[in-house]
Amino acid sequence: MAGFFGSLDTLPSDKFARKRLVQHSEVLKGRADDEPTSCDVVIVGAGFAGMYMLHLTRCLGLSAVVLEAAYGVGGTWFWNRYPGARCDVESMQYSYSFSEELQQEWHWSERYASQPEILAYANYVAKKFDLLRDIKFNTRVLRAVFQEEDCRWLLSTDVGTRYRAKWCIMATGCLSAAQTPKIPGLDTFKGQIYHTGTWPHEPVSLSGQNVGVIGTGSSGIQVIPELAAQANHLYVFQRTPNFSIPARNKRMDPEYENSWKTNYSERRKRARSMPAGILCELGDTSALAVSPEQRLNEYERRWAAGGTSFTAAYSDLLRNAEANETAAGFVREKIRRVIEDPDVAELLVPIDHPIGAKRICADTKYFETFNRENVTLVDIRSNPIREISPEGIAAGSNFHKLDSLVLATGFDAMTGALSKIDIVGREGLTLREKWRDGPNTFLGLMSSGFPNLFIVTGPGSPSVLTNVIVAIEDNVEWIADCIAHLLELHADYIEATTSAEETWMEQVRQAAEGTLYTQAKSWYLGVNIPGKPAVFMPYVGGVPAYQKICEEVAASGYKGFSIGTPAKALHSRQALLA
Ligand code: N01
């Protein structure tokens, strides 16, 4: 990414070496209890986005505080500790690229890293870059209010502390607000209820128990084989079957690791030239341009290799329904062949959405689990859950007696973590009010009416459709460059204009319309949350196109943003809500 610091190629490999702009720093002040703590930048969230943002903020010579609800770093990977939790992007790629030293010295033990290993990596990074001293743990931000008189954000937390900063950066994550469904009687259940997204930190033993699990998305598909191995009996309550490809996880091959480490910068660069920011074999022909035999061979080859890049086999799998059906049909047949009971197989075969239109899953022996004697698939599509009682779940005319219940019911994605906070912008406008019909941002980075408030991987950015660490690094570097630019100008504020935002959201909408993504009832659209407006939230144009636009905006002097001092009149509240 080019910008204030120059292009990445000309940067020292470790951006720690970046020149410091100490003269701009508003030194962190210790004040009396009733006074908020002042700093230049307040960052909300100590996941991968918040940690890197803190690092770059310090490189600018600015003072910063990170406010984090958890007692440790890692964000999503701090909370999602359920058995079987594992990343579906290869570990050589699912890691920071900003420090050559870091990527050389860290060793991943498996092809796909497990949650404990990713969390260990996050802690290692925090220690290596001395991040912990500026992170306030066990501190949840409740409210963030923009003060127009001096262009500062005032944040209040659940522990009674307050922070005042010129720039507020929301690094709150896309999949961090776990969603508990409103099922009648859920709160009367007398056994333990666990959510995969907020799994306990002390060991959980389910051995000898009758366990129910609701949800068969990526989390459910990972946790179900693990629960089946522990439980006396496992009941899987499935509403919608999902496509899943075998992960074929394995120990890290030292030769493979070495091939990455000797070519890291070149491979990272190539990864960023791919739509998902993941270096993979990208088919460049239509699935319909080859013979059925060639197609079958290609799908077999990719199935044997394992992993979610299965859908990268042909260029039109996510654009053309007929092409998609060739891949979907292949996977359906694979599922049928694994499951011994043909009736159970038919229930597990996804038929209501194109393959890849919902986030495709990667599994380890998921479908095989349904051949176990201690596992029962309960089809709640035809026999919906009527209620949960103290003893178990009533679905259709059956009652399933349970000792424990696991909710793998997903997240209020992309907007959930932000809407939990009272974010109040200019003229008392709240972000919740502004986004009542769906989120509006310019580039996913800022929303008009909320000056100096940046969002990392916000709605309207590619984020969840990519290797999210790539998306995070690109957004964080763009924000750091932008702040450096504002410092040079001695500007007090930056705000997305309503017209730039409208144009961008139309571009986001149009990009999604040309694809099959809109044909699935997915969390990308927000339809998993009752009452949430159905708006396709991520930008599907891919990492290179998005990065080019972001770079052009920065190079143009931040076209689409108004930059200045409070004296310059900003848009009216009416215009913002229009
Ligand atoms: O959540 P989901 P997730 N009654 O929303 C069901 C990432 N991730 O946590 O499809 C009954 O996908 C719901 O049913 P339906 C990844 O991006 C990555 O699994 O709405 N069922 C669905 O089956 C992923 O996409 C990794 O009919 C209810 C399930 O719960 C994202 O996180 C691992 C229900 C929710 O599936 C979210 O995945 C884990 C109700 N009231 C997660 N409400 C890896 O890197 C919901 N459901 C591998």
SSE class: alpha/beta
Shape annotation: globular
Tell me the major beta sheet: 8 strands, mixed
Strand content: 15-25%
Question: At the fourth CATH level, what is the homologous superfamily of the largest domain?
Answer: FAD/NAD(P)-binding domain
Uncertain ranges: 1-32
Number of domains: 2
Beta strands, count? 20
Query: How much helicity do the residues have?
Result: 25-40%
Span between termini: 34 Å
Work out the radius of gyration. 24 Å
Bound molecules: 3-acetylpyridine adenine dinucleotide
What is the typical, i.e. mean, pLDDT? 93
How many DSSP H or I helices? 17
CATH topology-level fold name of the largest domain? FAD/NAD(P)-binding domain
CATH architecture of the largest domain: 3-Layer(bba) Sandwich
**Which CATH C-level class of the largest domain is it?**
Alpha Beta
